Each structure stands twice: as C-alpha cells, then as structure tokens.
Amino acid sequence: MKVSIVSTILSAALATASPHFGMASLDNWKPAGHGDFRGPCPMLNTLSNHGFLPHDGRNLTREVVINGLSEGLNFNVSLGSLMFDMALVANPEPNATYFTLDNLNRHNVLEHDASMSRSDAYYGNNHVFNSTIFDKTKAYWTKPVLDVTMLANGKLARQIQSRASNPNYTFTSSMEEFSLGEVAAPVIAFGDIQHGRVNRSLVEYFFENERLPAELGWTRPEKVISLTDISKVTEMIRNATSLITPSKSGSRSGSTKRDLHGGMFR
Ligand SMILES: *[C@@H]1O[C@H](CO)[C@@H](O)[C@H](O)[C@H]1NC(C)=O
Ligand SMILES: *[C@@H]1O[C@H](CO)[C@@H](O)[C@H](O)[C@H]1NC(C)=O
Ligand SMILES: *[C@@H]1O[C@H](CO)[C@@H](O)[C@H](O)[C@H]1NC(C)=O
Ligand SMILES: *[C@@H]1O[C@H](CO)[C@@H](O)[C@H](O)[C@H]1NC(C)=O
Ligand SMILES: *[C@@H]1O[C@H](CO)[C@@H](O)[C@H](O)[C@H]1NC(C)=O
Ligand SMILES: *[C@@H]1O[C@H](CO)[C@@H](O)[C@H](O)[C@H]1NC(C)=O
Ligand SMILES: *[C@@H]1O[C@H](CO)[C@@H](O)[C@H](O)[C@H]1NC(C)=O
C-alpha cells in the first residue's frame, strides 16, 4: 500500500508530456504491441514500455535517447549521449542519425552470444526474453541481495555453457565490454553503486517483466548517474570474473619461483 502511494506520487512527478510519444511515467506501462520494435536490451525495452523512449521502438535519435535515459533513470546527459553513439552503429544505414530497437538484434554487432537472458542466435531467437536461459543465469544468484561475485558467476557460467554447446560461439573483446556493462546495469539502475549490490527481487522482476520495479518500492535514482559510476561497477564486475584469488601479500617473488618448480617437476 505504502509502496504504491509512493510510486504514484513519484510517477506523477516524473510524468513528462512528450510531443512524440505521450505521457511517460512509472505507472504508464504497456508491453510492445503489433508493429512495435523491441530488442535484446532489457533496459531499452523497459524504457520503451514506459514511454520514456518511443513506445514503438523506432526513431531513437540522440535527443530522444538522452531524454529517455535521463527521465527514466537519471542518467547524465553526456552518458546518454555516449550510449546513443554506442548503439548507433547498429543501424546499417550510412550516416544514420537514429536507431530502432530492432536494429540492435543484428547478431555480433552489439548483440552477442552467452547473454544473461537471451538464447544464442545459433539456437534461434536472440532478442526475446528466454526463461530457460535466464534460469541458467539465476542459478548463480544464490542470495536475496546480489553482489558482483554472484553476477560474475552467472556471466561466466553462461559463457561456458555457450562455448561448450554452440559450435559457432563468438565472444570478442569488445563483446566482453558490452557484456560487463549489461551485467553491471541492474546494479547501476536499481542497486548500490558504491558497494556493487542489488536486491535480487528487483532484478528478476525487471528482466521478467521489462518493467521498472516501482511496485516493489524502487524509485528513480536521486543522484545523477555518470560515466564514472558505470566504469566503477563495470570494473567491479570485471574484477569479480577473475577465477584467481589474491595471493598472500609479500610472497610475490617467492610464489613465481614455486610456480616454476611446480610446473617442471610435478
Ligand atoms: C525522428 O525524430 C526526429 C526528431 O524528433 C524527427 O525530426 C524525424 O522526422 C523523425 N523521423 C521519423 C522517420 O519518424
Ligand atoms: C556528467 O558527466 C560529465 C562527464 O562525465 C561530467 O563532467 C558532468 O559533471 C556530469 N554532470 C552531472 C550533472 O553529473
Ligand atoms: C556519409 O558521410 C560521409 C562523410 O561526411 C559522406 O562522405 C558520405 O557521402 C555520406 N553518405 C551518405 C550515404 O550520405
Ligand atoms: C530458449 O532457449 C533455448 C536454448 O537456446 C531454446 O532451445 C528455446 O527454443 C528458446 N525458447 C524460445 C521460446 O525461444
Ligand atoms: C556464426 O559465427 C560467425 C562468425 O563469428 C558470425 O558471423 C555469425 O553471425 C554467427 N552466426 C550465428 C547464427 O551465430
Ligand atoms: C528486496 O525487495 C523486496 C521487494 O521490495 C522486499 O520485499 C525485500 O525485503 C527486499 N530484500 C532485501 C534483502 O532487502
Ligand atoms: C579491481 O582490481 C584492481 C586490482 O586488484 C584494483 O586495483 C581495483 O581497485 C579494483 N577495482 C574495483 C572497482 O574494485
């Protein structure tokens, strides 16, 4: 009850009359209808479902993306602009000034194998939410509050599953960067950026409904989110993907020697 009152007040405050796509708000949510484009990115789909981005998923210009990310998630203008530049390459038209959510489905441009919630293109649909795949990721989300280790475990597991089964598995270093950003996104939007933690219920609700988790008590971040925040969480996830645990301090030269011996004589 309390949660819904809070979200009603908040969404009223957030509602913006846009000449292009009507009232955007946390309460105004409608999944894609016939003829609406959606893509592999749950966050952009979600912003379109709420009308923070065009509901039809088309004509996402720089201005539209900057405004949508700012109104929906309090993203800094320069961050919104950067994200637009990253997505724009998915539009195959030369010198395009917009992209559509459907452009993002092009395999191995931005969309990649071993996604957290989508099937590999090799097995069929690479952009619609797939609960079988998401269950595989969630198997590693073992506590009510996710930390970067659980998130990294889910990411690594998906890569191993994919590489072990998909003969066409592709995962370049630039895809690794996108993948890290995707894993970081729920922490940035719904969680604690400083400590790299996020309530699991909010993340699952978001993926499964492509809806901002306002009815679970989430509110738009009060502090403007900038590239520094994204970089910080991304680096925390990157660090957590290492399967090597820290060595004892001060044993650096000694351990190198031991390692060589171990390799030679075992
Ligand atoms: C896309 O949006 C821009 C800016 O709002 C507008 O000028 C343009 O006509 C739109 N294009 C299409 C194809 O809707
Ligand atoms: C937005 O980000 C830029 C570059 O990271 C920074 O210079 C600027 O201060 C930020 N603005 C706000 C309002 O946080
Ligand atoms: C795209 O932009 C480049 C550089 O400004 C220009 O040379 C080229 O003709 C443009 N292509 C189209 C199809 O507009
Ligand atoms: C979900 O992914 C699995 C594994 O790739 C695939 O077999 C299944 O057909 C997918 N389901 C849908 C509805 O696309
Ligand atoms: C298979 O891999 C190649 C090379 O990475 C890629 O171009 C192609 O899109 C992939 N196809 C599928 C269906 O995964
Ligand atoms: C996570 O959010 C849900 C929904 O608001 C709430 O019921 C739950 O207590 C939260 N969990 C933790 C560990 O804070
Ligand atoms: C990532 O690991 C490096 C090396 O241990 C460390 O210096 C850095 O502070 C870590 N980054 C974050 C964001 O935790």
From TrEMBL:
Superkingdom of source: Eukaryota
Domain Heme haloperoxidase family profile: 25-232
Cofactor(s) required for function per UniProt: heme b
Composition bias type Low complexity, residue spans: 245-254
Gene3D superfamilies named in the record: Chloroperoxidase-like
Signal peptide positions (record): 1-24
Record's compositionally biased regions (Basic and acidic residues): 256-266
Pfam family, one: Peroxidase_2
Region of interest (Disordered), ranges: 243-266
Keywords: Heme, Iron, Metal-binding, Oxidoreductase, Peroxidase, Signal
Gene Ontology MF: a single term: peroxidase activity
Protein family: Belongs to the chloroperoxidase family.
Name of this chain's protein: Heme haloperoxidase family profile domain-containing protein
Species, as recorded: Aspergillus cristatus (Chinese Fuzhuan brick tea-fermentation fungus)
